[in-house]
Amino acid sequence: AGAAFDTMSSSASSCRQQPRPRRITRAASRAAAAALLSDSPGEVVAHILKQCEPRDLGALACTAQWLHPLLELALRLRAGENGHALPKKLPLGDDSCHRRVQVLLSLERRRAQLGRRTIAAGMSHSLFISPEGTLLSCGTEWDVDGNPTPGLLGHGELAEEELPANSIHVPTPLPGLASVRIHSVAAGVSLSLAVTSEGEVYSWGQGNMGQLGHGTWASSQSTPRQITALASERVVAVEAGFIHALALAESGAVYSWGAGGDGRLGHGSEEHLSTPRRIQALAGRHVRAVAAGYESSLALTADGAVLSWGRGALGQLGHGGNPTPRSEPLPHVIDAFRGTPIAAVTAGNKRSLALSRSGGVYSWGDGAGGQLGHGDETHEDAPKLVS
């Protein structure tokens, strides 16, 4: 949509014949785009606008007041198609249209950030994105059992003979991504992932199970390397599990790769994959978020449904079946959430969490140590409200 907006702006700008070439400002381009829209039917304009990025809609709102009713319609259509509820109270009256647009735009900006993770914590390392988009990491390249995890921090080969060995104790920029603006990150047990502002995906860390997605079974990658198999998609979010990974594209397509044990990749088998493969069972589901647990995976759709797959031995898939919940090699809808739209999901070691659109928090899976928050250590094989 952003490209279409820029193309439309550029076309309008090029129609102006100037005696000498001059630089067209962004404001002038927006004004030209607004002028083009004024010649199109209202419903057509609204359907075009709903595809634009919130920042472009905000710019148009400042450029052309006559567009406000169409911007409001576009934002309402966008919210409805994505399964988002509108505010119960909005300013009334024609003279309040601008205020309504600002409220709806504010909500869209917040939703645009839902899939963005600017900090991430792995088992022994952390990732941070600065306000300028610089990626930093710190931690150690040793796991909790004392085993080496080379490449996890992304700074190349670290000196083993120096103290602290294979460690960086303060957040430090990754030299290999110094010129790249980072949008989102994920930190797993054995790997790290980063999504750029252009939707490209980089990975580094251990790759013996194919979890880096480069088409090899190399033991490690010590600096960030682009996953070229995803180059045809604009990726908006990534998730890193133990030795598998997930990517969500702007198109709604979900990709998985790495270790396939217990069906955690969602392809109906236990095949290990060294390159990303689209999960066909999620095609047409309008997925808006994904989560990768230790050996399981979750997907959240635009209408608030949750699907899970992978290892389910302790109930972390949420499909019932105690005392011996089964694993699922394909995405399966969690029936317990029918009638309860979900807004966000996350997955831990052997447990899962969900936040409903009404604000309720649900947990299920491994209850050891009270980690589900229900006041006991019971394993829950289906989502249970944390009260």
Give a quick rundown of the structure:
With 387 residues, this protein is an alpha+beta fold. It has 6 helices and 20 strands.
Q: In order across it, which strands form the biggest sheet?
A: 1-2-3-4
Give the assembly state of these chains: single chain
State Rg. 23 Å
Question: Which structural class should the secondary elements be placed in?
Answer: alpha+beta
Separation, N- and C-terminal Cα atoms: 42 Å
Secondary structure layout plus pairing:
Layout: H1 2-14, H2 26-37, H3 42-49, H4 54-63, H5 68-81, H6 97-112, E1 119-121, E2 125-129, E3 135-140, E4 167-173, E5 182-187, E6 191-196, E7 201-206, E8 220-226, E9 235-240, E10 244-249, E11 254-258, E12 273-278, E13 287-292, E14 296-301, E15 306-310, E16 328-333, E17 342-347, E18 351-356, E19 361-365, E20 380-385
Antiparallel strand pairs: 1-2, 2-3, 3-4, 5-6, 6-7, 7-8, 9-10, 10-11, 11-12, 13-14, 14-15, 15-16, 17-18, 18-19, 19-20
Helix pairs in contact: 1-2, 3-5, 4-6, 5-6
